[in-house]
Amino acid sequence: MAVRPGLTAERLVRAGAELADEVRFEHVTVSELARRFDVKTASLYSHLKNSHDLKTRIALLALAELADRASEAVAGRAGRDALTAFAAAYRTYAVEHPGRYAAARFPLDPQTAAASAGPRNARLTRAVLRGYGLTEPAETHAVRLLGSVFHGFVSLETAGGFSHSAPPAEETWDWILDALDALLHSTPTPAGTTEAATP
Amino acid sequence: MAVRPGLTAERLVRAGAELADEVRFEHVTVSELARRFDVKTASLYSHLKNSHDLKTRIALLALAELADRASEAVAGRAGRDALTAFAAAYRTYAVEHPGRYAAARFPLDPQTAAASAGPRNARLTRAVLRGYGLTEPAETHAVRLLGSVFHGFVSLETAGGFSHSAPPAEETWDWILDALDALLHSTPTPAGTTEAATP
DNA sequence: GCTGTTTGCCTAATGGTGTTAGGCAGATGC
DNA sequence: GCATCTGCCTAACACCATTAGGCAAACAGC
């Protein structure tokens, strides 16, 4: 009959990512994807192992895109500049691509996670912190703090958590970045550490 | 045949919450719930409007439980004590009841959200901050910061984000609380505000 | 350009979940 | 003891995920 649609795993994953941005990642479905390519659902199984495989690949795509943006943001910047740019890249991506952002949180099995752009994102966070001259246990704590704050904020924001109350989310975001910058400069002593703070 | 199981919406919701803690909130299903009560799936529809209704009610239960725990934690405490206890209540709940915690993040329509324990949680956060004497735009920013950090951290932790790297999550948690306490004491000036910091 | 092989999309079938409509029997009220 | 009501059941339909096997388009070699 008609010419073959020419499906490939890559095209499917890209379309799946767009679909996620439109209908939320959790509503991405093999059937809907097939519908978009005007193809029967079963046909996708030549290119994808199953639904979980599709979601995993969308997650990998999102993680890579996020790392690309973050990498571009921090290039040539340091200290507060780098922090702000990194944070903006992160938040902008989540706002522009909520479905992909949700995908980036899809739980990956350890092997897949290790091969993903996840570690690259972690290294970028460390690079941002380099300018603050933290010593080792503290730097890891700070990496986790930044991850928590950014993810938490963006997650609450996209869930509409701030949309119906007084100061716009934007202002809080700036305030938080100020606060984090100040915090990182003051290099707090870890709790539960035996070293005396004021000998 | 046998005696009637005596289903009620409340029993179903409680069982649904337990189910969520076992199999993850997103895998809570009307069918599985029916199976647990040894009852046909269709029978649940006398007590629940639909699957979304079930999830909403589990979310409301979780929000209420969370507020109860938080409320107990902050009672009779102030300042750093209150902050630590509040944070611990939050994190403990998420670790002990991951499914319920995920449920508490289920998107509610505005009316339901307004009638939920969500606002009560927000008020409790404000109560914790009372001890730090923040002025108004800052207090709201701080409420959002705490929400972001706690949610972000717990969310990353339960996703296994910290489980395979060096310092235990516990230590980072304590470090973060130290940092937040210090931060709140230093009361940073909001960014983009026209008032001069040093006149 | 014909032929044989590969491969991509199809049909068909199965099982799971969500949901509605209507029936029958156990619990309840008098 | 009877009428009613309510709760759980059967039946049925739609949608999604997945597998098995078929057929024809694309392609390789001559």
UniProtKB/TrEMBL annotation, chains A, B:
Entry-linked InterPro entries? Homeodomain-like_sf (IPR009057), HTH_TetR (IPR001647), MT1864/Rv1816-like_C (IPR025996), Tet_transcr_reg_TetR-rel_C_sf (IPR036271)
Which branch of life, at top level?
Answer: Bacteria
Annotation: DNA-binding region: 29-48
Which keywords describe this protein according to UniProt?
Answer: DNA-binding, Transcription, Transcription regulation
Electron transport listed as a keyword: no
Q: Supply the Pfam families for this chain.
A: TetR_C_33
Show the PROSITE patterns listed in the entry.
Answer: HTH_TETR_2
HTH tetR-type domain residues are 6-66
Q: What is this protein called?
A: TetR-like C-terminal domain-containing protein
Taxonomic lineage: Bacteria, Bacillati, Actinomycetota, Actinomycetes, Kitasatosporales
